[in-house]
Specification:
With about 800 residues, this protein is of the alpha+beta class. About 30% of the residues lie in helices and about 20% in strands. Helix 5 packs parallel to helix 7 and helix 14 crosses helix 16. The chain is globular, with a radius of gyration of 27 Å.
C-alpha cells in the first residue's frame, strides 16, 4: 500500500501543475455569459414562492461590487430566468479580483406538485444585469416609514424606562449609525446601532444611568413580503471612546427589569430559538409589547455583566396567517440553499466548494473533501436530532447533555463549562460545516446558529463605540511628540483593568448596583452567570468555528461582526506598540516578540495556539471587511509575518519555544504539536486571505515558514516512531531564553510521553502541497495505520473537521 503513496517530487509537482491547469481552464470555460455555472439545492420550503439564497465561491473578476449590477440569473422550474441579486461574502486578497465568495438571492417558485421537504435544485447562470432595488410588501414599507414603529425599551433597577427607535437612523436624513449590508431586487439589509436613553432623566441616588444597553439591529426586507427579519445584538459593552457623548460611557454590571419590543398592534414577533423569557405580548393602546426578556418573579432583576451581550434572531410579521407562515420559512432558514458539486461536462465543473478552480472555504480558502461515501439521509436525521435536543433545552431552560449541561440563566444559556479554557479536544476544530454543505442540511446550519448564540451568552471580550463598531486599536493610540506613539491598554483575553482603564469600566457609576445589593434584588443566577468566563484566546476556535460556518455558508451579518470584534480584541492584546511612555510592554504582545526575536533571531519564541486561533479570526475578519479596514490592519499583519520568519528556529524549523511553568519543573521552553498545527493553520490563512498573489514576497515568506514548520512535524526529533505520531509535548530548549534551542536531541526528562494523532492531520496536507514530498503522506498513513484514502473515507466522520485537508488532498491525488 505504501508504494502507491510514493510519487517522486517531479511527479508530484507535475500532478499539481496538471490540476491547476485543468481547474483554471474549466473555470475560464465556465465563465462565458449565459452558461450554467452552479446549481443550488435545498429541501423544499413550506412556501410556494420564496427568496432563495445561497453562497457560491467564484473565480477572480466574476463580481466587483463597485462596478454595480449583478452577475447571475437563476432558472425557475418552469424554465423562466429570474434575475438574481449578488452580494459579497468574502473577498480575494487583491481588491481588483473582487469577491471570492458571493451570496446569490432570487425570488423563485417551488415546482408544481413539490411538497415541503422534497429535494429541489435550481440552476444558476452567469448572466449579468443591472442593479434593481428591493420592493418589500406595502405593510413593511409603511411600518419602517413610521416613527417609533419598531421601538426597543427596557427598565433599569429603579424602574426608569429607556427607549430607542431602532430604525431611526435609516429613516432620518443624515443618519450616521447604519450600514447597508444588502441592496438589490430580492432583499435589503440595514444594520443600525442605538443606546437606549432614559425617557425622563433624573439625577440623585435613585436617578437614571447615562444610557442602558446598546442594541445592534439588523433589518432585512424581503421582496414582496409583509414581514422582515430582525436580528439583534444587545450588549453592556460601551467603550467610552467618545468623550463628547455619554451614550458610549461604560457601565457597571447592569441590572434591568425587562427588555421589550413595541410594535403596532397588527404585527407579531417570532423568535427562531425562544427561551422561557420570550414572553407573551401585552396590549398597550394601539400597540403590542413583546417581551424579549420578560421580568423575573418576586421583583428580582435580570443582570447583564460588564462587556456581556446576547443575540436574538427574529422576524416581525404582519398579523395574518399566510404572512406568518411565509415568515417562518425565512426564520427557520428553509430558503437557504447550498451550492452542489457536479459537472455539466468533463471540461466544465460547476462552481462549488468541491471545484479546485473556485473552492474558497474558510480563511484557508480550502477545497472541501468529497463526502460521497456519507449516508446523507442518516446525517440529516442526526442533525435534526441534535438540533431538537438543544432547541428543547433552550426553550425550557433545562439542563442538557455534555458539553452544555447548565440550565438556563435568565436571558442566557451558555454553552460549555464555566472555565474559558476547558481542557479537552472538544470543538478544537480546524474546519467545520463540511457535512452541512455536502448534505444541504438545514438542521446542521441552524444548529450552528443555536450553538453560536449560546457561546455569545458567555463571550465578554469586545467593546463597542457609540456608532456600534467594535472599538479598535487605532482609536486609542496616543501620539506623543516626545516619547512616540503608545497604546495605553493592557489586554490579555480582555482588558486588564488593574493595569490601565482608559475605557472607564472600573469607574462607572455604582449607585444602582449598590441599591440592588442592599435590597436583595439580584437574580438567583447572578453568581453562576458571572462564573462563566469568555472562551479564552488559546481556545478561541471554539467560539469562532460556528461563526465561520454562518459566514461562508450563510453570509450571516451577526457572525461577520462577531468575527471582526474578535479580531479587534486580539489586536489590543497583540499590539505592535508599547503600553506607556516608559516603553512598558505587555509580554504577550507582538512588540515583546519583536524585541526578543531581534536579539535572538532563529531561536523560536512564544507563538502557539493563542496566536494561531486569533490570527485565524483576524483572517476571517479581513476576508469579509472593506478595503479601509484591510489597509489599516495589513501593516500589522505584515509585521506578524516578519517576526514569525525571523523567529523560527533555524536548526529545527519549530516556531514555538514557550516556557511552560506547569510541566518539566519549569526547566524548559516547549513545543506542543497541537499548537504547532493550529499555528500552521493560521499561517495558511494569512497567505490565502491577506497576502495572496497581491503580495508575493509575504506569501513566499509564509511558504518558507510553513515548509520548515510542517517538516518539523514529521522530523525524527519530534516524531515518535513507536507511537506513530508527533510527540505531543517536548522540550525544545533551556528555560533561559537567551540560550540556543536543542537541535539534535532533547533531554531525557523533556518529553511528556504522549503523542498527538488528533490535531495535526491538516499539517501533513499543507506540508505536502509546498513541495510534493511523499513523506508527509507516508507519515499520515503511518499515523492512521491503514491505507490513507480508504481509511479516511471508511471512517469519514471520525475527526473530520481536523482531517479535512488531508482527506481532500489524497482524493485529489488519487
Amino acid at each position: 500500500m505504501a508504494e502507491r503513496l510514493r510519487p517522486t517530487r517531479a511527479r508530484a509537482n507535475a500532478l499539481f501543475r496538471i490540476t491547476v491547469a485543468l481547474s483554471c481552464s474549466a473555470t475560464l470555460a465556465s465563465a462565458r455569459q449565459g452558461v450554467q455555472v452552479a446549481t443550488f439545492r435545498l429541501a423544499a420550503p413550506a412556501a410556494g414562492e420564496f427568496v432563495l439564497r445561497a453562497t457560491l465561491p467564484v473565480p477572480p473578476g466574476t463580481f466587483l461590487p463597485e462596478n454595480g449590477g449583478s452577475a447571475f440569473h437563476v432558472r425557475n422550474p418552469d424554465g423562466a430566468m429570474v434575475p438574481a441579486q449578488t452580494e459579497v461574502v468574502s473577498r480575494y486578497p487583491q481588491s481588483t479580483d473582487g469577491a471570492d465568495v458571493v451570496e446569490v438571492l432570487a425570488r423563485v417558485r417551488r415546482p408544481a406538485g413539490a411538497q415541503p421537504g422534497d429535494a429541489l435544485t435550481y440552476p444558476v447562470l452567469l448572466e449579468p444585469h443591472r442593479l434593481e432595488q428591493t420592493a418589500p410588501g406595502a405593510q413593511v414599507a409603511l411600518l419602517l416609514a413610521t416613527t417609533r414603529a419598531v421601538y426597543a425599551r427596557a427598565t433599569d433597577a429603579f424602574g426608569h424606562e429607556y427607549v430607542a427607535d431602532l430604525y431611526e437612523d435609516v429613516r432620518i436624513p443624515g443618519g450616521d449609525r447604519y450600514r447597508v449590508l444588502r441592496a438589490g431586487l430580492a432583499a435589503r439589509t440595514e444594520a443600525t446601532h442605538q443606546s437606549l436613553r432614559a425617557v425622563d432623566p433624573e439625577t440623585g441616588p435613585l436617578g437614571t444611568l447615562p444610557h442602558l444597553m446598546g442594541v445592534h439591529a439588523y433589518f432585512t426586507q424581503w421582496s414582496g413580503e409583509d414581514f422582515l427579519s430582525l436580528d439583534l445584538r444587545v450588549h453592556n459593552a460601551a467603550s467610552g471612546q467618545d468623550p463628547a457623548t455619554p451614550l458610549d460611557d461604560a457601565l457597571q454590571k447592569l441590572y434591568f427589569g425587562t427588555f421589550e419590543l413595541r410594535l403596532p398592534h397588527d404585527w407579531v414577533v417570532l423568535d427562531a430559538f425562544p427561551n422561557p423569557y420570550f414572553g407573551a405580548p401585552l396590549t398597550e393602546g394601539s400597540f403590542r409589547v413583546w417581551p424579549i426578556v420578560a421580568p423575573l418573579a418576586n421583583g428580582k432583576l435580570h443582570v447583564l455583566p460588564q462587556m456581556a451581550q446576547f443575540q436574538r434572531r427574529l422576524v416581525i410579521a404582519h398579523d395574518d396567517p399566510e404572512t406568518i407562515a411565509r415568515a417562518l420559512v425565512v426564520l427557520r432558514e428553509e430558503n437557504l440553499g447550498y451550492c452542489a458539486p457536479g459537472a455539466p461536462s468533463k471540461t466544465r465543473p460547476l462552481w462549488s466548494w468541491w471545484n479546485a478552480g473556485t473552492a474558497r472555504y474558510f480563511p484557508q480558502r480550502r477545497r472541501m473533501p468529497d463526502l460521497g461515501m456519507l449516508d446523507t439521509a442518516q446525517q440529516i436525521a442526526s442533525d435534526q436530532g441534535a438540533l431538537a435536543v438543544r432547541q428543547t433545552q433552550l426553550a425550557t431552560g433545562s439542563t442538557g447533555p455534555w458539553p452544555a449541561q447548565s440550565a438556563g440563566l435568565g436571558w442566557a444559556h451558555p454553552w460549555g463549562v464555566t472555565d474559558g479554557g476547558m481542557v479537552s479536544g472538544d470543538e478544537i476544530w480546524l474546519y467545520d460545516g463540511l457535512t452541512t454543505a455536502w448534505c444541504a442540511s438545514n438542521s446542521g446550519y441552524r444548529f450552528a446558529e443555536l450553538r453560536h448564540r449560546m457561546y455569545v451568552d458567555r463571550q465578554r471580550n469586545v467593546l463597542f463605540n457609540a456608532p456600534g463598531n467594535p472599538t479598535a486599536v487605532h482609536q486609542w493610540v496616543v501620539h506623543d511628540a516626545v516619547h512616540g506613539d503608545y497604546l495605553p491598554v493592557w489586554w490579555f483575553n480582555g482588558p486588564m483593568l488593574w493595569a490601565a482603564d482608559p475605557f472607564g469600566l472600573s469607574t462607572a457609576p455604582t449607585f444602582q448596583n449598590d441599591w440592588v445589593a442592599a435590597n436583595g434584588k439580584a437574580p438567583a443566577y447572578d453568581a453562576e452567570l458571572g462564573a462563566y468566563q469568555s472562551i479564552d484566546e488559546a481556545h478561541l476556535g471554539r467560539f469562532t468555528h460556528d461563526a465561520k460556518v454562518l459566514v461562508w455558508l450563510g453570509n450571516d451579518a451577526l457572525a461577520k461582526d462577531d468575527l471582526r470584534g474578535q479580531a479587534e480584541s486580539f489586536h489590543f492584546g497583540y499590539s505592535e506598540l508599547p503600553q506607556d511612555i516608559w516603553n512598558g510592554t505587555i509580554v504577550s504582545g507582538l512588540r515583546a516578540s519583536e524585541t526578543y526575536v531581534a536579539g535572538h533571531p532563529g531561536n523560536g519564541f512564544s507563538f502557539g495556539r493563542r496566536e494561531g486561533w486569533c490570527l485565524d479570526a483576524v483572517c476571517a475578519a479581513y476576508s469579509t471587511s472593506d478595503e479601509l479596514w484591510r489597509a489599516r490592519n495589513r501593516p500589522w499583519l505584515a509585521r506578524v509575518v516578519n517576526v514569525i520568519e525571523a523567529g523560527q528556529s533555524t536548526c529545527t524549523g519549530t516556531i514555538q519555544a514557550t516556557l511552560l511553568y506547569n510541566v518539566f519543573n519549569a526547566q524548559y521552553r516547549c513545543r506542543q504539536s497541537i499548537e504547532a498545527a493550529i499555528g500552521e493553520h493560521a499561517l495558511v490563512a494569512l497567505r490565502e486571505s491577506v497576502f495572496g498573489r497581491g503580495d508575493p514576497a509575504a506569501s513566499q515568506s509564509l511558504n518558507r515558514v510553513l515548509a520548515n514548520s510542517t517538516r518539523a512535524m514529521i522530523a525524527p526529533l519530534y516524531w515518535s516512531s513507536a507511537g506513530h505520531a508527533p510527540w505531543s509535548l517536548i522540550a525544545v530548549g533551556p528555560g533561559d531564553s537567551a540560550q540556543p534551542l536543542y537541535c539534535n536531541s532533547i533531554p531525557a526528562d523533556g518529553n511528556g510521553g504522549n503523542v498527538d494523532a488528533y490535531q495535526c492531520w491538516s499539517s501533513f496536507a499543507y506540508g505536502y502541497e509546498l513541495g510534493g514530498d511523499a513523506q508527509f503522506l507516508l507519515k499520515a498513513q503511518e499515523m492512521l495505520g491503514q491505507n490513507l484514502r480508504s481509511g479516511l473515507e471508511d471512517h469519514v466522520l471520525e475527526n473530520l473537521n481536523n482531517r479535512a485537508a488531508i482527506l481532500e488532498l489524497v482524493q485529489r491525488l488519487q
